[in-house]
Write a structure and sequence with these properties.
This protein is of the alpha+beta class. Helices cover 40% and strands 25% of the residues. It has one domain: Bit1. A hairpin with a 4-residue loop joins strand 3 and strand 4 (101-107). The chain is globular, with a radius of gyration of 15 Å. Its EC number is 3.1.1.29.
Length: 126
């Protein structure tokens, strides 16, 4: 896909950050962890449905771009949520019930360059 050129809108991305310890240390089934990411992504879009970036992201249905990153543990995930909140970045921290366990978070779709600096320390989820 071509990069956004001068005068064109910037590339929208929905970032999802998943706790990698759920799979690698706590032995959650991979399908259960993927489900958590799906819940968070859907919730973030639902909560920010009327946002212009969300609407543009949804309008480009066949070219949606998501990036799934890994947080090492619950503390790192919750700390990221705090950083995003302080920076005014709209997101949804998904807390699995009834366990009350934060499992992942998803940002509303937004320009990559606006949020990537806040996510630099997180690597692609493996």
């Amino acid at each position: 896909m071509a990069a956004a050129g001068a005068g064109s809108p910037s590339r929208l991305v929905q970032y999802v950050v998943v706790r990698s310890d759920l799979v690698h240390k706590l032995s959650w089934p991979l399908g259960a962890v993927i489900t958590q990411a799906c819940h968070a992504a859907t919730a973030a879009i639902h909560l920010h449905y009327d946002d212009p970036d969300t609407q543009r992201y949804l309008a480009e249905l066949d070219s949606m771009h998501k990036v799934v990153l890994g947080a090492p543990d619950e503390a790192a995930l919750c700390s990221l949520s705090d950083v995003l909140t302080q920076a005014g970045v709209a997101h949804k921290l998904w807390v699995e019930q009834p366990e009350n366990t934060p499992t992942c978070l998803a940002l509303k779709p937004c320009p990559k360059e606006a949020v990537q600096p806040l996510l630099r320390k997180f690597k692609l989820f493996k």
